[in-house]
Design brief:
Number of helices: 19
Helix content: over 70%
Strand content: under 5%
Largest sheet: none
Number of strands: 0
Radius of gyration: 25 Å
Length: 374
């Protein structure tokens, strides 16, 4: 669907076709993103979730920042349709990789040892429920014992024996939304992507106004944000060792100073260009400290809920829905970031906008400190 929607967007001539193609792109991308992260959680173990989630978040942030640069370069050198050809080639490669992917439950059929059945016992989003062999033997042995007449009479009716969770279970999405720890993670992710997409909306226009940069020069400037995002696996490894709370809180507080200091860039000179590049690079390093631990903590929220009550989410689990909320926060940030940044810049100027970004980054530390797990 994403491939066809991108092709439709490239050949569209009427505004309503543009709208339909973008809706289809958003719908298909949401499915791809959500299922991909749920599969990641289902495949890797709890001990390694931070490292692998850091890799996923690095790839996501890197692509979000670098794609305008690539699109601008291809458009300038090869024309309009070449941009869509590049995108469709990438989507085609993604489809090929997904066809070659082997899911965990499929791999278990060819696994001779029981290790895979013992690993990730709480990461069963896509796993099939299979009865334990020991439990089967125990049930079989119990069924062979002689039963007296008094034991044959049921003490409770079938309705009373029905698990209470089947009667009163809330929808999974409402359970997740009523969990402060998950909401803290969602808000922190929203803050991170709002700041990144806010730069997309205002930075190219500002450097064109101050430095006279063209689209290529402005796009290259985004590499200062993009390259530090590739340190996500290292941040994820630290998260596995130290826990997500303090790393995410440090990311919020450390992001504020370079964001606020961007107000110093206000005229054209080589010194100002260097300052801008250095501050954006620092922002890239600090923002990845925020998103990676919180994305990894999403799976830990579901795990904690299932430990407290194994039947809380039912047999299907809740990892896919947790990462669906994650995807919704990114989508909301993609809408909110550029609009809010542009509005602040027009109302209060470049300095006011950067100050607002700094305060916004600190706001992510409050729920993270109080609710995110150590």
């Amino acid at each position: 669907m994403l491939f066809l929607a991108t092709l439709l967007f490239g050949v569209a001539k009427a505004s309503w076709i543009f709208v339909i193609s973008r809706l289809l792109q958003g719908f298909s991308a949401a499915i791809t993103y959500t299922v991909g992260l749920a599969l990641l959680v289902d495949t890797v173990g709890r001990n390694d979730i931070g490292t692998w989630m850091g890799t996923a978040m690095s790839s996501s942030s890197f692509g979000l920042i670098v794609s305008p640069l690539l699109g601008g370069v291809v458009y300038a050198k090869a024309g309009y349709m070449s941009v869509f050809a590049m995108a469709m080639a990438l989507i085609g490669f993604d489809i090929l990789m997904r066809l070659c992917m082997i899911e965990k439950k499929t791999a278990e059929r060819f696994q001779s040892t029981p290790e895979l059945h013992q690993q990730n016992d709480l990461y069963g989003t896509f796993a099939e429920d299979e009865p334990n062999e020991r439990q089967q033997k125990s049930v079989s042995a119990e069924s062979q014992k002689p039963v007296s007449d008094s034991e044959q009479a049921p003490l409770l009716s079938d309705a009373a024996l029905e698990p209470a969770s089947e009667k009163t279970r809330m929808p999974t999405i409402l359970i997740l939304l009523s969990t402060p720890r998950l909401l803290a993670a969602i808000y922190g992710i929203f803050v991170n992507f709002s700041i990144l997409t806010g730069f997309d909306g205002v930075l190219p226009l500002y450097v064109k106004e101050i430095f006279g940069f063209n689209s290529l020069n402005a796009g290259l400037l985004f590499l200062c944000l993009a390259i530090p995002q590739m340190t996500g696996p290292l941040v994820g490894n630290l998260t596995d060792r130290l826990g997500p709370r303090w790393i995410a809180v440090a990311g919020c507080f450390c992001s504020a100073p370079p964001l606020i200091l961007l107000r110093l860039v206000d005229h054209d000179s080589l010194h100002q260009k260097i300052i801008l590049g250095v501050l954006l690079t620092i922002c890239g390093f600090t923002l990845i400290l925020l998103v990676t631990p919180l994305a990894a903590d999403l799976s830990a929220v579901v795990e904690a809920k299932e430990k407290a009550d194994p039947d809380v989410f039912g047999p299907g689990g809740a990892y896919a829905q947790a990462f669906a909320l994650f995807n919704c926060s990114i989508a909301a940030a993609t809408l909110f970031g550029p609009v809010a940044a542009t509005a602040f810049k027009e109302r209060f100027g470049w300095g006011g906008m950067t100050a607002a970004m700094g305060v916004f980054a600190i706001s992510g530390a409050v729920p993270t400190f109080f609710y995110t797990d150590r």
